[in-house]
Write a structure and sequence with these properties.
- The chain has helices spanning about 5-35, 40-60, 70-105, 110-120, 125-135.
- By secondary structure, it is mostly helical.
- The chain is elongated, with a radius of gyration of 16 Å.
Length: about 140
């Protein structure tokens, strides 16, 4: 790998983190809204879907090079990668908010803090999943 491609991968990764941060922000805010209507556990999943759609659109247009693959194939593969990510987010968010935080008497916005931590965990694994699977070139 030459220096130019290493810089390109480096820039791409930080663009992915930026786009992911925007999508996570939308996810986070929508989770708070959904929590007014449904349980915390269900709200995490619904908000993740909103964030995932945002991340797909932004990643496709601003992060990864054109793959030459059909839109619906990219969306399907993006969804597969995100199924693994939402499982991580859900278990971490629920585990912290409902089990660990009460156990250690952590009461400062426990659901919000747990959800933020949960959203951050799959950032690196999702980047590689999307780069080499969702938006791989034909």
């Amino acid at each position: 790998m030459n220096k130019a491609s290493a810089k390109s991968n480096h820039d791409e990764f930080f663009q992915f983190l930026f786009v992911g941060g925007l999508a996570a922000g939308i996810n986070f805010v929508s989770r708070i809204g959904f929590s007014e209507l449904v349980s915390y556990r269900v709200a995490i999943v619904l908000a993740y879907l909103i964030g995932m759609l945002t991340a797909f659109i932004l990643s496709k247009h601003y992060v990864f090079e054109k793959s030459g693959r059909h839109f619906k194939d990219e969306l399907r593969d993006f969804t597969i990668v995100n199924i693994f990510a939402v499982i991580q987010v859900w278990f971490i968010s629920v585990g912290l908010a409902e089990y660990l935080f009460p156990y250690i008497f952590f009461t400062f916005y426990p659901e919000e803090i747990a959800h933020l931590i949960g959203l951050g965990i799959p950032a690196v694994t999702s980047y590689f999943g999307h780069k080499y699977f969702s938006f791989r070139k034909v």
